[in-house]
């Protein structure tokens, strides 16, 4: 009993040892063509450019600036040059008995420069700025978050593709079962009509055989519609024409067993929350960085003069350092930091909650797979019994030792057993796909 229970727990169905190349190819196609994945890639590219933008803030920036001013009127600065120098010049002229020192007039200079130009290359560079440092780290983590979200969607898509594929195979097998059943009831119909003509059976058996043909035909048509819908949905997931033919793999009913170990700690959902926690930690540091000073340097290299003249005296440079230290901001940063701390508590709570949810999901899907496998074993045994029972009753009916109702009951049991086995077989594969998703065990190709 213990060995049987252990065997039932070893319930990974096939992929670990059985290669399904067609399905693998469809998964690659789905991952390549899916529009949502393309949109995620666009978001990742956008995040990468945002990261490069954050890195560019560490480099110096250059700009070419130029101004030209033309002015007249306005405020002036009065310079009493004549009042200061004319007495001196007058004395010198008397001493030298000449007019070598002319009299000067007082000057009035406009504050606004007239016909003046200034052209320069302005350079700035951050020397100490923690805000830039933590901003770059946050952008990098946001890019990582985008990639993790893409992986989460890819795993969901792989699961959906697998389940849709198995349901399509299930529908094909259902069509085959109904086609075989239709051939069987048509043969019964032919035999019963022949026996009725020879007065060996009554009309009741003939009418019942006719009704069975009608019923199985209707079920076959329904199965075909179900299959067409399954094919359309599968092609929809692959982003291709809905009526595209699907190449199928031959799935062996001998389901291999493999030990399933819970590895929910590898789930991208947890990685995402851990990344959010790290990002929030850097947001906290970014908030604290506003308490530290920032230091930057600047330098100007240019020319300036009046009347568009240019000579060696027109050239100049101007350089310096800029320091900014926020002394008081009304406790704004303090309250921001409190908000970040509350976010961090919330994230820790989410991590604990998600861990439990993922573990529960794993256990539920594992138990579902166990139940699906047990159901398959039971249906498969019933199918074998129904097959033998149908063969025995068919033989007795041909020998005239069984009535048609008994034959019909045996055949219906045989058809239903096949349908149930087909249903439980692919339900097992579907349960495996769900367990694989819960365990994040599917390996993506690079």
Automatic annotation (TrEMBL):
rRNA processing is among the record's keywords: no
InterPro entries (UniProt xref): OMP_efflux, TolC-like
A Pfam family of this chain: OEP
Annotated transmembrane regions: none
Chief place of localization: membrane
Family named by the database record: Belongs to the outer membrane factor (OMF) (TC 1.B.17) family.
Residue stretches in coiled coil: 337-375
Domain of life: Bacteria
Keywords, in A-Z order: Cell outer membrane, Coiled coil, Membrane, Transmembrane, Transmembrane beta strand, Transport
Subcellular localization(s) per the UniProt record: Cell outer membrane
Naturally occurring in which organism (per UniProt): Flavobacterium pokkalii
Protein name according to UniProt: Transporter
Lineage: Bacteria, Pseudomonadati, Bacteroidota, Flavobacteriia, Flavobacteriales
């Amino acid at each position: 009993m213990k060995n049987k229970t252990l065997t039932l727990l070893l319930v990974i169905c096939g992929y670990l040892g059985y290669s399904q190349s067609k399905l693998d190819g469809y998964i690659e196609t789905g991952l390549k063509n899916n529009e949502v994945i393309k949109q995620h890639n666009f978001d990742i590219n956008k995040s990468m450019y945002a990261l490069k933008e954050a890195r560019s803030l560490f480099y110096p920036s250059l700009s070419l600036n130029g101004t030209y001013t033309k002015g007249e009127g306005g405020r002036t600065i009065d310079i009493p040059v004549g009042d200061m120098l004319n007495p001196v010049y007058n004395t010198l002229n008397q001493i030298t008995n000449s007019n070598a020192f002319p009299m000067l007039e007082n000057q009035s200079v406009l504050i606004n420069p007239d016909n003046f130009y200034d052209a320069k290359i302005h350079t700035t560079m951050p020397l100490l700025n923690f805000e830039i440092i933590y901003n770059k780290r946050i952008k990098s983590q946001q890019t990582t978050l985008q990639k993790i979200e893409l992986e989460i969607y890819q795993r969901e898509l792989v699961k959906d593709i697998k389940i849709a594929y198995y349901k399509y195979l299930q529908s094909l097998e259902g069509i085959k079962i109904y086609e075989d059943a239709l051939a069987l009831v048509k043969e019964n119909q032919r035999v019963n009509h022949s026996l009725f003509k020879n007065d060996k059976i009554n009309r009741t058996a003939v009418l019942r055989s006719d009704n069975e043909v009608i019923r199985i035909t209707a079920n076959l048509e329904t199965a075909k519609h179900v299959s067409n819908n399954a094919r359309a949905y599968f092609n929809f997931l692959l982003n291709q024409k809905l009526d595209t033919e699907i190449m199928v793999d031959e799935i062996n009913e001998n389901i291999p067993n493999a030990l399933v170990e819970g590895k929910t700690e590898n789930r991208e959902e947890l990685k995402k929350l851990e990344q959010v926690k790290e990002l929030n930690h850097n947001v906290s540091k970014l908030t604290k960085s506003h308490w530290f000073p920032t230091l930057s340097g600047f330098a100007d290299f240019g020319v300036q003069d009046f009347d568009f003249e240019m000579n060696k005296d027109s050239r100049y440079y101007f350089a310096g350092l800029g320091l900014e230290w926020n002394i008081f901001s009304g406790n704004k940063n303090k309250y921001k930091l409190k908000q970040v701390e509350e976010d961090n508590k919330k994230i820790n709570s989410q991590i604990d909650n998600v861990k439990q949810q993922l573990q529960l999901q794993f256990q539920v899907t594992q138990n579902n797979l166990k139940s699906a496998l047990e159901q398959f074993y039971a249906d498969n045994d019933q199918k074998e019994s129904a097959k033998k029972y149908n063969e025995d009753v068919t033989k007795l009916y041909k020998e005239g030792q069984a009535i048609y109702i008994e034959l019909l009951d045996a055949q219906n049991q045989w058809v239903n057993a096949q349908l149930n086995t087909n249903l439980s077989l692919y339900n097992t594969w579907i349960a495996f796909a769900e367990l694989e998703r819960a365990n994040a065990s599917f390996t993506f190709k690079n």
